[in-house]
Amino acid sequence: MADMETIKALKEKTGAGLMDCKKALEEAGGDVEKAIKILREKGFAAAEKKADREAKEGLVYINISGDKGIIIEVNCETDFVAKNEEFREFVKRVASYIFEKELTSIDDKVEEMRKEAIMKFGENTIVKRWEILKLDKGNIFDTYQHGDKLGVVVEGKIDLSSEEAKSLLHDIALQIAAMAPQVVKSEDLDKDFVESKKKEFIQEMVNLGKPENIAEKAAIGKLQKLFSELCLYDQPFIKDEKGEKTIKDIINEYKKKTGKEFEIIRFVRFQIG
């Protein structure tokens, strides 16, 4: 019969319950390594059973190291687990491994880590998405996190010696977090999508009895409104109290005042839910 110290040590290693550890040790004849294998196999089987359960909580984690960085979203079932320090450490380990290997998809190791997390926390756990970012030469990252549920990484081509430029870049990271644009500029939108929306808007006006030339002008206005929602540069700057200036206006003002370049290269925004 396994002694309590060995059972507790096994629990620490695997995260399994005390009774499960006791039974595994008994089944393994007291051999700890065999007991770990038994618990892992049983845990992985249990993990498969939980795979269909909804996992709408979780956290977004960002790590920047020099000219590279990663942003990752990992989901679980409850906020209770999401706030668990051990779950946070699990997410960091997964992110570190993915970052080191520069993975573009889940490999066997990540899947094994995921199943071990399910066994440990008792909830379905999903490594939902990640992006590894590499700076272009001379550029800089800025990041913003709102709690654990929302994270932004933005890459800017700016004057690296200017604190004003860095501050503006951070304001834009806040803008991305708050307003959730999908692209930097309107020309970054899919051309077929834009053309389809334009035709849709024209048809709406025609259906209301508007002449074609009027319908065309109205459609352009509707497209501009859509751009102000989807495109970062076309969005009203949230720190402009009057709401009159767009991000593009703010950037152009800075460039005119300083004579320095300032451009948003790309951004990634992950939000739980």
The CATH architecture classification of the domain at 53-134 is 2-Layer Sandwich
Biggest beta sheet attributes: 3 strands, antiparallel
Number of strands: 6
Q: Which structural class best describes the helix and strand composition? A: alpha+beta
Low confidence ranges: none
Quote the beta fraction: 15-25%
Give a short overview:
With 273 residues, the protein is α+β, with helices and mostly antiparallel strands.
Kindly describe this structure.
It is a single chain. The chain has 273 residues and is an alpha+beta fold. It contains 10 helices and 6 strands, in the order αααββαααβββααααβ. The strands form 2 sheets. Strands 1-2-3 form a 3-stranded antiparallel beta sheet. A 3-stranded antiparallel beta sheet has the order 4-5-6, with helices on one face. A hairpin with a 2-residue loop joins β1 and β2 (68-76). α3 (32-50) packs across α6. It is elongated, with a radius of gyration of 25 Å. The mean pLDDT is 91.
Please supply descriptive tags for the structure shown above:
Helicase, Ruva Protein, domain 3; 273 residues; alpha+beta; three-stranded antiparallel β-sheet; 6 strands; elongated
Q: How are the SSEs placed, and which strands pair?
A:
Blueprint: H1 4-14, H2 18-27, H3 32-50, E1 57-65, E2 68-76, H4 79-82, H5 85-101, H6 108-121, E3 126-134, E4 140-146, E5 150-158, H7 163-179, H8 191-207, H9 212-230, H10 247-258, E6 262-271
Antiparallel strand pairs: 1-2, 2-3, 4-5, 5-6
Helix pairs in contact: 1-2, 1-3, 2-3, 3-6, 5-6, 8-9
